[in-house]
Amino acid sequence: MAAKSRRNVQWGRIYVQNTLSLVSRLIFKDRRAGKLAVALSVVVALSACMETTDQAAKKTVVDDTLRNAALEAEAGRNYVAALSHYRKLWADDSANEAVFMGIVRNLRYLGSAKEGVRFLLANKEQFESRPAYHLEFGKSLIAAEQSRAALKHLTKAIDLEPENWQIYSTMGIAFDRLELFRKARDAYELALELSPENPKILNNLAISAAMGGDIKTAIDVINKAARLDRNNVQIRQNLALFLGIDGDTKNAEALARMDLDEDAVRNNLSVFESLRRK
């Protein structure tokens, strides 16, 4: 986008230079007041046009830089920086849905889901027709411990975008928080119909099974997720947790040591043992 803007600026400068040259020849060819006035007015108009083009191009470059910085910060889990970048973009373009969602999402990542809910409500009129608005509203309400209210928005999101697996998976999380494990499983299975063998959905389904007391199923499902996404630390440590609860402390410890320091490993082993005894 920035390269395209620079090309547009270069083209604009060449266009103005050529036009000025043409106007100059017109002035020298005929210096009568009428034509001179017309020529000078063209020069002024073109100069103003060039200034506007330069300003627009600079703004585009700045916006692209901020947007890339926000995405990079978020990918690196620097949510404070990401939120700051998104807010700067929002101050300049309060109709941008992607920027709006970026603010709400990073507030949730920072543990400020309630502030995200207020921001969602403040911009309801502008974005409530978008499925992403209701999906993010549902996620924020779950994070704010309002899972029952989240279901209303997630149902609306499904009405608007019934083929989006993320909505069903998020609905499963809401049902899990409400300890409605059968409904949660049904939601995850619908998500898997739309996105088969998706490790994120399988991870959520495994957690749901474990929360419902079916640790064997949880291990089977999380093992499948781990095979599909071998580099996912969260999935690997969930597998370690489930194995530890099931009494397989040797393999649980080996998995824990792949990602955690010694103190964390010892703490996890203690947790595994206490959970297993319950």
Describe the protein in words.
By secondary structure, the protein is an all-alpha fold. 83% of the residues lie in helices and 0% in strands. It has 15 helices and no strands. The longest helix has 43 residues, at 33-75. It is globular and about 55 Å long. The N and C termini lie far apart (58 Å). The model is unreliable at 1-33, 36-40 and 42-47 (pLDDT under 50).
> Order of helices and strands, N to C?
HHHHHHHHHHHHHHH
Write down the Rg.
Answer: 28 Å
| Separation of the first and last Cα atoms | 58 Å
Enumerate the spans where pLDDT stays under 50 for 5 or more consecutive residues: 1-33, 36-40, 42-47
Oligomer: single chain
Task: Give the integer mean of the pLDDT values.
Answer: 84
How much helix is in the residues?
Answer: over 70%
Please give the largest β-sheet.
none
Strand content: under 5%
State the shape: globular
Structural class: mainly alpha
Can you count the helices?
15
- Overall strand count: 0
